[in-house]
Amino acid sequence: MKWDSGYIYENTNFPAEPKVNFKVVLDKIKGQTGAKNLLDLGCASGEFVHYVNKFLPSLHCTGLDFNQDLIQRTKNNPKASFRVGDILNLELGQKFDIVTMIGVLTCFDDFKPIVDKMMAHTNKGGSIFVVSIFNDDDIDVRLKFRNNTISSDWQVGYNLFPISSVVDYAEQKGGKVTVSEIELPFDLAKQDDSLRSWTVRTDGGRYSLNGLMLLYRLKCVEIMV
Fold first, then answer.
1. How far apart are CA 38 and CA 49, in angstroms?
2. Residue 49 clears pLDDT 50, i.e. is over it
């Protein structure tokens, strides 16, 4: 099994209106006074990195992704560098004031080695921001699926970890953790590719739904190191 949804990120004509989760993380990054560099893990074609540099041009950003094809699609940016790499074997030989991971944690079977790698690459006093789907209940889920309109291969990419477990582990490692929920301020229509999420209204407000029948809201986990 593999993660093979990179086609979603192949378009490097980045939209003028960024993703809501990008805005949320950028607002939090702006509060990190004195930050000089940022590492974005699972950067795909660099959309978030370029968005950050648009508003924080003095912040040097490094983007890392295992998909060489996506890294080759990144745009030239004098304030950023991009490299191919595996997060599980990450050894960059330097630390960063800010480490981000947006929509990537669910690709892994275990969050603990990922948190370890992120904390090991974060300067003391720095912050980690992880945007992902989490389980509000104390249940771990390993999910495999096959998007028949795209591929005949079984894939991974929507594993769920209890938010309580992630918070407890990061705090045991010495981090100070804050969790916030991200609610979309607008509706999204269903697209031809049902792996892409759309929105539905419930008594609790607006939630995202996808073809895997996952109903969710993203959360942003901030770990102060």
1. 9
2. yes
